[in-house]
Amino acid sequence: MKVWAGELGFADLAVSGVDLSSAEPGLEAWLADGFHGDMDYMARHGMMRARPAELVPGTLRVVSVRMNYWPQAADAQAALDDPQRAYVSRYALGRDYHKLMRNRLQKLAERIAAEAPHGFRVFVDSAPVLEVELASRSGLGWRGKHTLLLNRRAGSYFFLGEIFTDLPLPLDAPETPHCGSCRACLDACPTGAIVAPYRVDARRCISYLTIELKGAIPEALRPLIGNRIYGCDDCQLACPWNRFARLGAEADFAPRHRLDEASLVELFAWSESEFRDRMAGSAIHRIGFERWSRNLAVALGNAPGTPAVLAALRARADDPLELVREHVAWALERHGLRQG
């Protein structure tokens, strides 16, 4: 199977069982603390997330795969260090990975079925699946203190996907954790969202604030977002294991529309139709023009108050979208200007 997976562009494959009962107390506590924020679906599915055989009856094994995504031309730190540039999480610079990986996983599952007929379903961040837990139990890596999967040979810059199967495949051995006393990811988080090792309060996480949150970003957190307009990579950039990260080989993951070097001002000037056209096929398309504009307004409020930045904000001070108007007003006030 590993050879077939490699032929389809996957960097690795491993197999785990389906008993995740030991992970349920942690999931219950995380939900009880409200750390999922407005992601109601997290609570709605409850413990099914930790019970693969309830999600897909008959499941005996989970085949986990990973695919590297880090783009060759993406100098993340340079973008973060320039407050006039827009920072987009590196995984979202190119095309949306969901469809690509799901199609490849389907092909892999069908290839397996040609040799050993089986019932299966494939998932790529598309159902209540504890993908990091499953991947860590399969031996693809271990859960880092930032809660992402880490691999000694590849760091954390990769996507995960799963095949739920009723084949009694041999199990792979889990890998032991290798974070030790390191707390680089905790110290690097701009908003302190990693409240303890292996515990993230999504309500403070910049990825949640810029992607999942539908309403206004809490004012106290806005200055901490900096120039990050979609997602955040700081905890991964700080992780020593990413010295061993591998570049992605998929052309579809290469940066599109200059998202790895664009300025905040030029992106804020996009019309809604331009946003839709340029972000079609991108993970960013999912948040819509309103949240995209909201995020850019916050970043412009954190940028140096150059004439171009102030002109961009003033141009949308009377934006028809109330959410955008409110964040533009905040940004103008940050620069010592009041609407009207």
From TrEMBL:
This is Epoxyqueuosine reductase. PANTHER family: EPOXYQUEUOSINE REDUCTASE. Gene3D superfamilies: 3.30.70.20. It is found in: Cytoplasm. It is an enzyme of class 1 (oxidoreductase). One of its GO terms (cellular component) is cytoplasm. Residues 167-199 form the 4Fe-4S ferredoxin-type domain. Pathway: tRNA modification; tRNA-queuosine biosynthesis. Its EC number is 1.17.99.6. TRNA binds at residue 214. It catalyses: epoxyqueuosine(34) in tRNA + AH2 = queuosine(34) in tRNA + A + H2O. GO terms for molecular function: 4 iron, 4 sulfur cluster binding; cobalamin binding; epoxyqueuosine reductase activity; metal ion binding. It comes from the Bacteria. Cob(II)alamin binds at residues 49, 125, 149, 160, 207, 232-233. [4Fe-4S] cluster 1 binds at residues 179, 182, 185, 239. Binds 2 [4Fe-4S] clusters per monomer. [4Fe-4S] cluster 2 binds at residues 189, 205, 232, 235. Keywords: 4Fe-4S, Cobalamin, Cobalt, Cytoplasm, Iron, Iron-sulfur, Metal-binding, Oxidoreductase, Queuosine biosynthesis, tRNA processing.
